[in-house]
Specification:
Elements (H helix, E strand, L loop, with lengths): L4 E7 L3 H12 L4 E4 L6 H4 L30 H15 L3 E2 L4 E6 L5 E5 L3 E9 L20 E2 L12 E5 L3 H12 L3 E5 L14 H9 L4 E3 L2 E6 L3 E6 L2 E6 L2 E4 L8 H6 L24 E3 L14 H4 L2 H19 L1
Parallel strand pairs: 1-2, 1-6, 2-3, 6-15, 7-14, 8-9, 8-14, 9-10
Antiparallel strand pairs: 4-5, 5-6, 11-12, 12-13
């Protein structure tokens, strides 16, 4: 066990967790960041050739500029940038140390149990994002080795039958990339039309590919089963089998509610949206704070790096004020 009582334990080393750590350091608070994967683990698992939707300055934290060759930064440029930020501020980050449980002790502190140690702190910040938890379809065969909930790159799937399941940005972009990489692509989506949030400059491209059947569309379809070599769907009431040597089930992601349940953070069971004070990002549990996309629950289109990066500044100011007043009263 770590015997030092920390001012804050930050769970998650994504951009919002890193921003919170920078502020903790600026206020002279004792903190640690616990991350189950690598730094900015979600960005690490983005498609390898991904280009951000946004301009570099909107991804910046800690006042350090992000240098990008083009108007919009790539995944690799973002990863390099966040490594640079961690190094510049010498942030205390424990990578590959997963938090298993967090409990609120009777003494008004929090105890975080990880794969390697136990940490005790006056405050806990959940900056856990949502990208680690795919929305499963819940059909037989979803766990087969040729099925993935994350898309990487097109090259390994050249001249292969690939089924992409989903109708929003991640599914549409993967289908287009696979098509251009020489895969035979089918797109299965339960809606009669593609998602309303599909980026405006991508929509004409995917609609033209579907219209020309360069990507085979199966809209208004429900996946029934995935086997070693095909995906069985219900399409307009008919049962149909689509050849599939690889399947990308890109049906979205959601935050885990595990820590909410352990701590008693009130949240909506359907949307997973937690209760918190927007002035401080403190939940209904005193000393338990939120940062980044976790505040929006399942509503992934509400909080991005661009606005989530400011949460750390707000909540650490609140925590620093409480820590200062506690020290003064003692």
């Amino acid at each position: 066990m770590s015997h030092e009582l920390l001012d804050a334990v930050i769970v998650g080393a994504g951009p919002s967790g890193l921003a919170a750590a920078i502020e903790a350091k600026r206020y002279g608070l004792r903190y640690v960041v616990l991350e189950k994967g690598g730094i900015t683990n979600s960005i690490l698992h983005f498609p390898t050739q991904m280009i951000f939707f946004t301009t570099p300055e909107l991804l910046e934290i800690g006042g350090i500029p992000l240098v990008s060759e083009r108007e919009k930064p790539t995944r690799n440029e973002a990863l390099k940038y966040y490594r640079k930020v961690v190094g510049a501020f010498q942030l205390d980050i424990h990578q590959y140390e997963e938090v298993f449980s967090i409990e609120h002790t009777g003494a008004g502190t929090f105890r975080a149990q990880t794969s390697k140690a136990v940490y005790e702190a006056r405050n806990i910040i959940l900056a856990i994002g949502y990208y680690d938890n795919p929305n499963y379809i819940g059909v037989p065969g979803e766990a087969l080795p040729h099925v993935s909930h994350y898309y990487t790159e097109a090259h390994p799937f050249y001249d292969r039958d690939v089924v992409v399941i989903g109708g929003k940005n991640s599914a549409v972009e993967a289908a287009l990339d696979l098509f251009r990489g020489g895969a035979r692509v089918s797109l299965v989506h339960r809606g009669a039309e593609l998602g309303q949030t599909v980026k405006y400059w991508i929509r004409p491209d995917i609609e033209n590919r579907l219209k020309k059947r360069e990507i085979t569309p199966y809209l208004n379809s429900r996946v029934l089963e995935i086997t070693a070599d095909c995906v069985t769907i219900a399409h307009n009431g008919d049962r149909r089998e689509i050849p599939a040597q690889h399947v990308f089930a890109l049906t979205g992601y959601h935050p885990t509610s595990k820590f909410f349940d352990q701590l008693g953070v009130r949240h909506d069971s359907d949307t997973l949206r937690p209760e918190y004070n927007p002035q401080t990002f403190e939940t209904n549990v005193k000393g338990a704070y939120l940062a980044g996309s976790v505040v929006a629950g399942r509503i992934n289109g509400e909080i991005f790096i661009e606005n989530g990066r400011f949460h750390g500044e707000v909540l650490m100011k609140a925590i620093a004020g409480v820590v200062r007043s506690a020290k003064t009263s003692n």
